[in-house]
Amino acid sequence: MGGRQRADSKARVAGTQAGRLARVSATSPATAHARHPARTLLGAVLALAVDFALLAIGVGGVGPLLHHPRALALFATWLVATPVLAFLHPVRAHDPVAGRPDPPVMLALFAIPLVTPMLAALAERAHLAPLPGGAALRWGGVVIAALGLALRIAAMTRLGSMFSPIGAIQRGHRLETTGLYGLLRHPGYLGAWLADLAIVLAFGDAVPLVLPALLAIAIAARVRVEERLLDAAFGEAYRAYRARVGGFIPRPSPRARP
What is the pLDDT of residue 119? Predict the structure, then answer.
């Protein structure tokens, strides 16, 4: 009897622990931290308001902005991209188990894209160093900026909860090697950089080209951290992936031997 009672007691404890684990799993960061849609929408609206204000400062006011077709076209892409990022942004499911905070790099990755439109517009207005290429270059910049944002959104959506604003390995992290990540190891960073460069081209002045150059340096620093973490977490599997797939430029597939 005593042995049976102890066995029953252990079974009850195990059942209680299993139930607790099930509840913890059901309220893991992947679901528990989802924000209310109204708060998400408010955040997107506030972000767009800041973008609009900075862009207006760059072109010389709200009136000039409303008569600047390329600036309006850029803002139209943000009107689409910002809510999409707000509702799909996986950082609310962020649950890192290994990582390395890098505040200066994080600041650069946030601040440079934020101020690039304003500074590029100011440079255009001041006629500091106009780029050749005329309207074709400038409207081409608008198109590339939209494509860059689309690439970044697609990459972040593909990563889902594995996306992190810092260099980090998430709980349950898997090595993503399919879709966009079968073509490039860092499509999200490429999209962000292309969008930043294209905004400078859209306003057509050479002086702000220093901003995408600085952003490239910040991205390179972040990539070094992330690749060390992925190498430590996945070992040979990541090294084989890195040898097969280019970081920012697709590599040609090796030809099969006859």
Answer: 98
